[in-house]
Amino acid sequence: MAFGRKSHDGPLPFVRHRPTTNPILPVADMGEAIGFYERLGFSVHAYDPGYAWVKHCGWEWCHLRAVESVAGNEASAYFHVDDAAAWRAGFTTACAGEIELGELADMPWGKREFSFVDPAGNLIRLGSPV
After folding, report:
1. Count of CB atoms within 10 A of residue 36's CB?
2. Residue 63 burial by Cβ neighbours in a 10 Å radius (0-12, 13-18, 19+)
3. β-strand partners of 77
4. In whole angstroms, what is the distance from residue 99 CA to residue 38 CA?
5. How far apart are CA 42 and CA 45, in angstroms?
6. DSSP conformation class of 17
7. Helix or strand or coil: residue 11?
8. What are the φ/ψ torsions at residue 80 (nearest 5 degrees)?
9. Please, which residues have CB within 8 angstroms of residue 129's CB and are 6 or more apart in sequence?
């Protein structure tokens, strides 16, 4: 489906704007997860001991949900950003090298992206148009 399309086929409703989604990432240690995302520069707002929102500039980026174990965790999220290089530089400054960030790379699908893995094993990728 092309962007700006005025009609659609099928039973689902037409969507005028890019949908906003917030992945819910499993974490075994909520305190550790909150500290990790705060070191990256996000603000984290705990709803209760088992659930929290990861935010920046007033926007929710993802949610954290406490689980008993993250063994075998393969959860991931992709954050679409305007400038992946600026985000990587911001993370590098915020965490002072305490968190391992993947290298920034131009991908064949037209995105410039990098990634990191949080303490629960959640893979987070950030990408912007090349």
Report:
1. 23
2. middle
3. 124
4. 12
5. 10
6. S
7. coil
8. -85, 120
9. 110, 111, 112
Q: pLDDT tens-digit profile of 15-69?
A: 787 778 899 999 999 999 999 999 999 999 999 999 999 999 989 999 999 999 9
The architecture that CATH gives domain 24-129 is Roll (3.10)
Residue with tokens 């990728």: 125
Give the integer Cα–Cα distance in Å for 38 and 125.
17
For residue 25, give the amino acid letter. L
- CA triplet 23, 28, 30: central angle to 5 degrees? 75
Give CA–CA dist 119/126, Å, rounded.
17
CA 125 from centre of chain:
7
Q: What is the pLDDT of residues 60-90, one digit of tens each?
A: 999 999 999 999 999 999 999 999 999 999 9
**CA–CA gap between residue 38 and residue 59 (Å, rounded):** 15
